[in-house]
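Re: the request from the purification team.
They wanted to know what the chain is likely to look like in 3D before they choose a buffer screen. I agreed to run a prediction and write the result into the notebook, where they can find it.
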Amino acid sequence: MAAGGQGALWGRGRRSGRAAASLPPHGCGATMDRNPSPPCSDAEEEEGDAVGNTVYSKHWLFSVLTRLIEVIAPAEPDPAASPEGAGTELDEEMENDICKVWDMSMDEDVALFLQEFNAPDIFMGVFAKSKCPRLTEICVGILGNMACFQDICMSISKDENLGQVLLQRLCDSDSPTLLETSRLLLTCLSQPEVANVWVERIRENPSVYDCVCFIMSSSTNVELLVKVGEVVDKLFDLDEELMLNWIKNGTCRSVGPSVDDSPEELPDFKIVPCILEAAKQVRSDNPEGLDVYMHILQLLTTVDEGIQAIVQAPDGGKETWSLLYDLVCQELCQPDDPPIIVQEQKTVLASILSVLSAMFASQTEQEYTRMRKNMPLIGSLIRILQYMEGCGKRAVENSKESEEEETGRTDVNEEDFHLKILKDICCELLSNMLQELTKENTMEGLHQGHLNEQTCSCAFQNLLPLYSASVESFLEVLREADQTLANNLEKRFPSLKVHT
């Protein structure tokens, strides 16, 4: 059985295209109709040649793997000729055949057969001797498919030599190889039985940090950035100690990727600028990727060291604040969007607002947190709350329909849970920002349309009674800016006690 929902099986690789991490384990990868059909076993000609319950030929698989061994270690090397494995190009026939194996490895019987034939050891030889990027990519891809099956994943993960060799692939200069390596790592990290093995291995291998930061800070390959982001997100979620180590890292120069085999000195990478650079690359092309990188930032704010890494950057956190501010005020949950958009964007909004809240609470003296610059953010926070109210009414209607039909109750409850998280984070940040408003700020907000009776009523409705102190403080300021509006709000919310 494949690990339930963990990882994704990938067929013949394509060197461009959109990431498909969300696809289910079986049947993923390049569509089969675009690939050569893997060879079948003719049972009438050779009984017992089929691999497991498939129609694939054992004999053909043996022949391909044997040829692969000969590619990297010819039986009689010709001193006058360059071995095929030493070249940078792969023979077309060999590439077609090994790609067929890649497709076939999506089948568990084939994956088990490859494991029994010691294919992982053969691939280790490829990694050690081949200079052909395409061959390396394909072999990592096959291992990634094999790792989707629990027993094989455990065997691969417990092989210390193979584990170290695979981590070294993160320092490869070939983007497709990096992509397949990241997919393989994510598959293994998603298997609870072996996740700790990989976390410990990565923690003890400083080059992983350097290579990951190098990719995030310099790659323009969105598919690769998304997959590397998913690996980092999973690592930080699994192990706080590793996250702390990476937050504190970047104090010394280290060896990183190079086009040739010679070491290349890299700059002192800091994790936050690298995350921001990757987020900027994926923000327009891949909403799921943006969600991943925002969640990484949110994970950083769960520890004091992470918050300090964000706000004590050379720019004092201005770049982080500017990016997140722009996402909330200019891109996500906009006035011309239907209210239901908040359902689609709830997780990324929760991550962004959580980071903004942590930054606002710790950097109230920074220029970028001054309220005169942040009235549009307050307007956006209230709009999110307004949209959630609309979604809440829709959820109640769906719940009644589901109850009548006795279907869909789990989905509704899950949506309620995620929206509640978003509401809690949004209200916390809004209450903190309202407390900092001055008369001048408030008048500006009224003039710009961010504050009016409708938006203030929505804010009060959501903030009370938990944040009553913030509401009362804001109402006092509002009375100075617009006494009529303040009086109307007092009448609508009689529980408020304003001391004049």
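For the purification team: The longest strand covers residues 255-256.
Please add any questions underneath this entry.
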